[in-house]
Amino acid sequence: MVGRCAQGGLTPTDIVVGINPGSTYGDAKRWLPERFAEVTERLCRTIHTSPGQQVSVVIFGAKGEEHLGQEIAARLSSRSLVLSGATTIRELMAAVKRCSLLLTNDTGPMHIASAFKVPVVAVFGPTDWRTTSPFGGAHAIVREPVDCAPCLLRECPIDHRCMTRVTVDQVYEAATKQLTPLGVRGEGLGETPSPPHASRLTPYGALDGVTVFLDRDGTLNYDPGYLKIAADLKLLAGVGPALARLKKVGAKLVVVTNQSGVGRGILTLKDLEAIHARLQGLLEQEDVALDAIYFCPHHPDDGCRCRKPNVGMVERAVSELQLDFRRFYLIGDHARDIQLAHRVGAKSVLLTPAPVDAQSLEGLKAEKAMPDAMAKSMAEAVDWIFIDAMKSAKGRDERERRERQES
Ligand SMILES: [Zn+2]
Q1: Which residues surround ligand 1, an ion (CB under 5 A)?
Q2: Could you tell me the distance, in angstroms and rounded to a whole number, from the CA of residue 303 to the centre of ligand 1?
Q3: What percent of the chain has pLDDT over 90?
Q4: Which of these, 379, 384, 349, 117, lies nearest to 242 by C-alpha position?
Q5: Counting Cβ atoms within 10 Å, is residue 113 exposed (0-12), middle (13-18) or buried (19+)?
Q6: How does pLDDT run across 226-279, given as a tens digit for each residue?
């Protein structure tokens, strides 16, 4: 493979953009070749290279797709290597691994890339992005929500709108987002320096049935003390991507927040509504849809059932959202969040920016607020939940297997 790359003019320092414009399944899964070429052309111009370094394009494809590869190569001004129909599976894997980014349709190489943690931008048309999207964090799916998709047809009986409506701009934008956080700009080789999050190894749907309760102030957003004005709400670093990882594998996200500022007359319900609209808006920009936000507006002296650590908000969520209470997690930054978790049988993660000293630990024990885990960021908290949920699922499978054997 190394030999073949050298033949094609690729050097070890090249930044390699891979494209896989074909699909053996049928034409319906193919985004338009001229658009693949245009996005690639634009990317090659965008990617920053060090002196002596260059961007090269490798075009993948199956046997019979050689013409497609050549057609795209002819449209590119950067150096390109057409491997369509010319690789064994091992060679394909090695070449995909060498890429800093793979632009692809919904295909096998897409999954190979995600297994190697190569950032992927996949254009989905007739197939179901929910069931066959690559697992792991380093990918973006671009698709158009048309009525007829997913149809799973090999050939489109109408105008192929699921693909023709996907624009060059959309794919280009998704691709630049994949590149930048991975530090490809100016860094050279196609290694991915991003941290190996547990979710990359977590299959789609792995957290179906799991609910993660989230505190709001100090957990999702900076806590200025009685946040009043929606525009002042700012998400804490890393919250969006971390929650997106949970959503992607099926977890439900439910915010439970004490807002006694309302009962104290500091802000109105209308202010609170605006704040929550902004919270949802900011999270939606990060591909996170909250399943619900519950708040307690009461004064601590009101003795209501909903103020944490009381269980009223969780009870309401259970009945309104039909949650499986055997699979609850809670992330919060306050002892009363953890106390609530204990009361509803949720596993809990306490967010704490600094390590907890022995004295505070004793304090938590005394308050019956010992969490199952502590994390210094939302990303860490989510990693812990992934690992715990996978372990629990494995334990459950084994228990069920034993029970079947015994019966
Ligand atoms: Zn209340």
Answers
A1: 296, 298, 304, 306-307
A2: 8
A3: 48
A4: 379
A5: buried
A6: 999 999 999 999 999 999 999 988 899 999 999 999 999 999 999 999 999 999
Domains of the chain: 2-182 (3.40.50.2000), 211-402 (3.40.50.1000)
Which positions ≥6 away from 306 have C-beta within 8 Å?
Answer: 294, 296, 298, 312, 313, 316
**Both structure tokens of 118:** 């190569």
Annotated active-site residue 333? The verdict is no
**Is the pTM higher than 0.85?**
no
Ligand 1 geometric centre to CA of 336 (Å): 14
389 closest CA partner among 332, 324, 339, 343:
324
User: Using only C-alpha atoms, what is the Rg of the chain?
Assistant: 25
Both structure tokens of 240 = 């969006």
Burial of 292 (0-12, 13-18, 19+ CB in 10 A): middle
pLDDT digits (tens, 9 = 90+) for 55-84: 889 999 988 889 999 999 999 988 889 998
